[in-house]
Protein backbone atom coordinates (compact mmCIF):
# COMPACT_ATOMS: atom_id res chain seq x y z
CA UNK A 1 0.00 0.00 0.00
CA UNK A 2 2.88 2.39 0.76
CA UNK A 3 4.32 1.82 -2.73
CA UNK A 4 0.95 2.55 -4.32
CA UNK A 5 0.47 5.75 -2.29
CA UNK A 6 4.04 6.92 -2.99
CA UNK A 7 3.27 6.80 -6.72
CA UNK A 8 -0.32 8.06 -6.47
CA UNK A 9 -1.37 11.10 -8.47
CA UNK A 10 -4.72 11.74 -6.80
CA UNK A 11 -3.77 11.28 -3.15
CA UNK A 12 -2.99 14.31 -0.95
CA UNK A 13 0.49 15.65 -1.69
CA UNK A 14 1.70 15.45 1.91
CA UNK A 15 0.66 11.79 2.21
CA UNK A 16 2.44 10.92 -1.05
CA UNK A 17 5.60 12.66 0.18
CA UNK A 18 5.50 10.83 3.52
CA UNK A 19 5.02 7.47 1.79
CA UNK A 20 7.93 8.33 -0.51
CA UNK A 21 10.10 8.88 2.61
CA UNK A 22 9.20 5.40 3.88
CA UNK A 23 9.77 3.85 0.46
CA UNK A 24 13.21 5.44 0.07
CA UNK A 25 14.11 4.29 3.59
CA UNK A 26 13.12 0.73 2.65
CA UNK A 27 15.40 1.02 -0.39
CA UNK A 28 18.33 1.63 1.97
CA UNK A 29 18.61 5.41 1.66
CA UNK A 30 19.87 7.27 4.73
CA UNK A 31 17.99 10.19 6.29
CA UNK A 32 20.27 12.98 4.92
CA UNK A 33 19.94 11.66 1.36
CA UNK A 34 16.11 11.32 1.67
CA UNK A 35 15.91 14.90 2.99
CA UNK A 36 18.00 16.19 0.05
CA UNK A 37 15.91 14.24 -2.47
CA UNK A 38 12.57 15.47 -1.12
CA UNK A 39 13.85 18.98 -0.24
CA UNK A 40 12.86 18.89 3.42
CA UNK A 41 14.71 18.81 6.74
CA UNK A 42 16.24 15.70 8.26
CA UNK A 43 14.11 16.31 11.34
CA UNK A 44 10.96 16.03 9.19
CA UNK A 45 12.13 12.75 7.64
CA UNK A 46 12.95 11.28 11.06
CA UNK A 47 9.58 12.37 12.50
CA UNK A 48 7.60 10.61 9.76
CA UNK A 49 9.75 7.48 9.74
CA UNK A 50 9.38 7.15 13.53
CA UNK A 51 5.61 7.68 13.33
CA UNK A 52 5.35 5.10 10.56
CA UNK A 53 7.35 2.59 12.62
CA UNK A 54 5.10 3.21 15.66
CA UNK A 55 1.67 3.48 14.04
CA UNK A 56 1.96 2.05 10.55
CA UNK A 57 0.20 3.68 7.60
CA UNK A 58 -2.18 5.60 9.92
CA UNK A 59 0.88 7.32 11.40
CA UNK A 60 1.44 9.14 8.11
CA UNK A 61 -1.95 10.88 8.38
CA UNK A 62 -2.31 14.24 10.10
CA UNK A 63 -3.46 13.99 13.69
CA UNK A 64 -6.92 15.36 14.43
CA UNK A 65 -7.89 17.46 17.38
CA UNK A 66 -5.56 20.33 16.60
CA UNK A 67 -6.57 23.90 17.20
CA UNK A 68 -8.22 25.91 19.90
CA UNK A 69 -10.97 24.39 22.00
CA UNK A 70 -14.50 25.79 21.82
CA UNK A 71 -15.32 28.63 24.18
CA UNK A 72 -18.92 27.59 24.72
CA UNK A 73 -20.22 24.13 25.51
CA UNK A 74 -22.68 22.07 23.48
CA UNK A 75 -25.33 22.73 26.13
CA UNK A 76 -24.87 26.49 25.70
CA UNK A 77 -25.06 26.13 21.91
CA UNK A 78 -28.31 24.20 22.32
CA UNK A 79 -29.72 26.93 24.57
CA UNK A 80 -28.95 29.59 21.93
CA UNK A 81 -30.62 27.51 19.21
CA UNK A 82 -33.66 26.89 21.42
CA UNK A 83 -33.89 30.61 22.12
CA UNK A 84 -34.30 31.37 18.40
CA UNK A 85 -37.23 28.98 18.19
CA UNK A 86 -39.05 30.77 21.00
CA UNK A 87 -41.20 33.84 20.51
CA UNK A 88 -39.20 37.04 21.13
CA UNK A 89 -40.33 38.78 24.33
CA UNK A 90 -41.42 41.97 22.56
CA UNK A 91 -43.56 40.36 19.86
CA UNK A 92 -47.24 41.15 20.04
CA UNK A 93 -49.53 38.15 20.34
CA UNK A 94 -53.30 37.88 20.22
CA UNK A 95 -54.70 36.86 23.58
CA UNK A 96 -57.94 34.85 24.04
CA UNK A 97 -59.67 38.15 24.86
CA UNK A 98 -58.71 39.26 21.31
CA UNK A 99 -56.27 41.86 22.67
CA UNK A 100 -52.70 42.33 21.51
CA UNK A 101 -50.15 41.73 24.27
CA UNK A 102 -46.34 41.42 24.50
CA UNK A 103 -44.52 39.59 27.28
CA UNK A 104 -41.92 42.38 27.53
CA UNK A 105 -42.56 45.55 25.56
CA UNK A 106 -38.96 46.67 25.99
CA UNK A 107 -37.68 43.41 24.44
CA UNK A 108 -37.12 42.80 20.73
CA UNK A 109 -40.16 42.08 18.57
CA UNK A 110 -38.04 40.03 16.14
CA UNK A 111 -34.87 38.08 16.80
CA UNK A 112 -31.75 39.77 15.47
CA UNK A 113 -28.19 38.64 16.01
CA UNK A 114 -27.62 41.50 18.45
CA UNK A 115 -30.83 40.67 20.35
CA UNK A 116 -29.90 36.97 20.51
CA UNK A 117 -26.38 37.76 21.75
CA UNK A 118 -27.80 40.09 24.43
CA UNK A 119 -30.37 37.48 25.50
CA UNK A 120 -27.64 34.82 25.67
CA UNK A 121 -25.50 37.11 27.82
CA UNK A 122 -28.56 37.56 30.04
CA UNK A 123 -28.56 33.78 30.52
CA UNK A 124 -24.87 33.85 31.46
CA UNK A 125 -23.52 32.68 28.08
CA UNK A 126 -20.63 34.91 26.99
CA UNK A 127 -21.01 34.99 23.22
CA UNK A 128 -20.56 37.62 20.52
CA UNK A 129 -22.90 38.54 17.69
CA UNK A 130 -20.65 36.89 15.11
CA UNK A 131 -20.40 33.70 17.18
CA UNK A 132 -24.21 33.54 17.39
CA UNK A 133 -24.34 33.86 13.60
CA UNK A 134 -21.78 31.06 13.09
CA UNK A 135 -23.72 28.77 15.44
CA UNK A 136 -27.03 29.38 13.69
CA UNK A 137 -25.57 29.02 10.19
CA UNK A 138 -23.82 25.76 11.16
CA UNK A 139 -27.10 24.37 12.50
CA UNK A 140 -29.15 25.61 9.53
CA UNK A 141 -31.40 27.70 11.79
CA UNK A 142 -33.07 30.79 10.33
CA UNK A 143 -33.36 33.77 12.63
CA UNK A 144 -34.64 36.29 10.08
CA UNK A 145 -38.32 35.56 9.64
CA UNK A 146 -40.99 38.05 8.79
CA UNK A 147 -44.32 37.30 10.37
CA UNK A 148 -47.43 39.14 9.43
CA UNK A 149 -51.08 38.84 10.25
CA UNK A 150 -54.27 40.60 9.33
CA UNK A 151 -56.92 41.67 11.73
CA UNK A 152 -60.24 43.22 10.95
CA UNK A 153 -62.63 45.16 13.12
CA UNK A 154 -65.46 43.32 11.35
CA UNK A 155 -66.88 40.67 13.70
CA UNK A 156 -67.85 38.46 10.74
CA UNK A 157 -64.37 38.64 9.12
CA UNK A 158 -63.54 34.97 9.70
CA UNK A 159 -66.96 33.83 8.53
CA UNK A 160 -66.71 35.78 5.27
CA UNK A 161 -63.49 34.09 4.30
CA UNK A 162 -60.23 35.53 3.11
CA UNK A 163 -59.17 36.76 -0.29
CA UNK A 164 -61.16 38.03 -3.21
CA UNK A 165 -64.38 36.59 -4.55
CA UNK A 166 -64.44 33.83 -7.14
CA UNK A 167 -65.77 36.27 -9.74
CA UNK A 168 -62.53 38.25 -9.64
CA UNK A 169 -60.13 36.78 -12.19
CA UNK A 170 -56.69 35.83 -10.98
CA UNK A 171 -53.88 38.11 -12.08
CA UNK A 172 -51.70 36.41 -14.71
CA UNK A 173 -48.06 35.97 -13.73
CA UNK A 174 -45.71 38.72 -14.91
CA UNK A 175 -43.86 37.88 -18.09
CA UNK A 176 -40.11 38.00 -18.12
CA UNK A 177 -38.62 39.67 -21.11
CA UNK A 178 -35.65 38.06 -22.78
CA UNK A 179 -34.70 41.33 -24.47
CA UNK A 180 -31.38 42.77 -23.30
CA UNK A 181 -31.59 45.59 -20.82
CA UNK A 182 -29.79 48.88 -21.13
CA UNK A 183 -27.18 47.79 -18.57
CA UNK A 184 -26.21 44.72 -20.65
CA UNK A 185 -24.89 46.76 -23.61
Short descriptors:
185 residues; mainly alpha; Arc Repressor Mutant, subunit A; 2 domains; two-stranded antiparallel ribbon; 8 helices; 2 strands; 42% helix; elongated
Task: Describe what you observe in this structure.
- By secondary structure, this protein is an all-alpha fold.
- The protein has 2 domains: 2-60, Arc Repressor Mutant, subunit A; 74-148, no CATH class.
- 42% of the residues lie in helices and 2% in strands.
- The protein contains 8 helices and 2 strands; from the N terminus they run αααααββααα.
- Strands 1-2 form a two-stranded antiparallel ribbon.
- β1 (93-94) and β2 (100-101) form a beta hairpin.
- α3 crosses α4.
- The longest helix is centred in the first third of the chain and has 14 residues, at 13-26.
- The protein is elongated, with a radius of gyration of 32 Å.
Bin the helical content: 40-55%
Domain count: the total is 2
Cα end-to-end separation: 58 Å
Query: Which residues sit in consecutive blocks of at least 5 with pLDDT less than 50?
Result: none
The biggest beta sheet reads: 2 strands, antiparallel
> What gyration radius follows from the Cα positions, in whole Å?
32 Å
What is the H-and-E element order?
HHHHHEEHHH
Mean pLDDT: 79
State the secondary-structure class. Answer: mainly alpha
Strand order of the largest sheet: 1-2
Strand content bin: under 5%
Amino acid sequence: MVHRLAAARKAPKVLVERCRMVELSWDGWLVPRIADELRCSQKTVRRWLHRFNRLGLEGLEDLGGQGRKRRITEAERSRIIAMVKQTPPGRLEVQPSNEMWAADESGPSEWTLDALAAAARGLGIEVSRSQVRRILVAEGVRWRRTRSWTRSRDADFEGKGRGSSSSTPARPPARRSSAPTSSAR
